[in-house]
């Protein structure tokens, strides 16, 4: 490899974190042509992990290294969400699940590239695409190895759990997560509630917060939150909660 190419390679290796995916299209935009990338692979500096996706040889890649590429290189809003985000912040009672499954959320207009869906991340990765919340709202930085990714804040994560409930997320389990969130910032919760497009999520969130006795609930201005009209049956044959006009599972209302 000539001096110019070696210098360019050194720049790439020194400016990009380890253990991440590097996308061919993004590399080309940075001045690393497809021919040059081919030379890097031939010289065993990089391996291909799928069409248009490379990883530095010897790196220990996990799904967060793939999420980094989705966010930093493709500009997607896909992020660790729900119980996964809570576990990453040490706020989930179900930390053991984080080693078996990762829950991602992204906007309805987005989709995971084929290389991400086909790669074996060593765990099950589920990605829910929805625009019930604005893509940029309620995300926080999470440092992982030598890089940083955006993940859901605790309040957004619980709302994402509620969005999936009760079909794929037990409500009693979400309530147990809500119980631990006694120090949420009211201003952040207010913005999420005002921006949320799901009446079900908003009513369940407020019901659970009240049931858990969280003091931050007193500082919210619910006059600015659209809770819709009419009764909503979250489950059949449950208990009707008149304050929020929802029918919830009997085991949830009885949970202490």
Give a verbal description of the structure:
The chain has 256 residues and is α+β, with helices and mostly antiparallel strands. The protein is built from 11 helices and 11 strands. The chain has a 3-stranded antiparallel beta sheet with strand order 1-3-2. A hairpin with a 2-residue loop joins β2 and β3. The relative contact order is 0.10. The mean pLDDT is 94.
* Secondary-structure element pattern, one letter each: HEHHEEHEHEHEEEHHHHEEEH
Largest sheet: 3 strands, antiparallel
Number of strands: 11
CA-based gyration radius: 22 Å
Specify the overall morphology.
elongated
Please summarize what this structure is:
The protein has 256 residues and is α+β, with helices and mostly antiparallel strands. 39% of the residues lie in helices and 18% in strands.
Task: Break the fold down into its secondary structure elements and pairings.
Blueprint: H1 3-15, E1 21-23, H2 24-29, H3 34-42, E2 46-50, E3 53-56, H4 63-72, E4 79-80, H5 82-88, E5 101-106, H6 114-118, E6 124-129, E7 139-144, E8 147-152, H7 154-164, H8 171-179, H9 186-195, H10 199-212, E9 232-233, E10 239-241, E11 246-248, H11 250-254
Parallel strand pairs: 5-6, 9-11
Antiparallel strand pairs: 1-3, 2-3, 4-5, 7-8, 10-11
């Amino acid at each position: 490899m000539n001096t110019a190419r070696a210098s360019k390679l050194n720049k790439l290796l020194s400016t990009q974190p380890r253990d991440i995916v590097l996308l061919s299209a993004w590399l080309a935009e940075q001045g690393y042509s497809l021919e040059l990338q081919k030379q890097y692979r031939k010289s065993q500096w990089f391996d291909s992990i799928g069409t248009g996706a490379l990883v530095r040889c010897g790196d220990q890649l996990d799904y967060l290294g793939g999420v980094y590429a989705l966010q930093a290189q493709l500009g997607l809003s896909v992020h660790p969400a729900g119980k996964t985000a809570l576990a990453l912040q040490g706020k989930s009672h179900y930390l053991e699940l984080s080693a078996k499954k990762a829950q991602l959320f992204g906007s309805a207009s987005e989709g995971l590239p084929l290389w991400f869906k086909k790669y074996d991340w060593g765990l099950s990765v589920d990605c829910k695409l929805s625009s019930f919340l604005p893509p940029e709202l309620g995300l926080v930085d999470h440092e992982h190895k030598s890089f940083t990714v955006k993940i859901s804040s605790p309040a957004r994560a619980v709302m994402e759990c509620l969005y999936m409930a009760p079909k794929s997320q037990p409500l009693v389990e979400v309530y147990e997560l809500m119980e631990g969130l006694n120090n949420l910032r009211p201003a952040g919760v207010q913005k999420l509630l005002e921006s949320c497009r799901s009446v079900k999520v908003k009513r369940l969130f407020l019901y659970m917060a009240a049931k858990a006795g969280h003091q931050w609930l007193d500082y919210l201005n619910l006059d600015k939150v659209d809770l819709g009209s009419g009764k909503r049956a979250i489950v059949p044959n449950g208990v009707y909660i008149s304050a929020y006009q929802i029918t919830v599972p009997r085991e949830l209302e009885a949970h202490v």
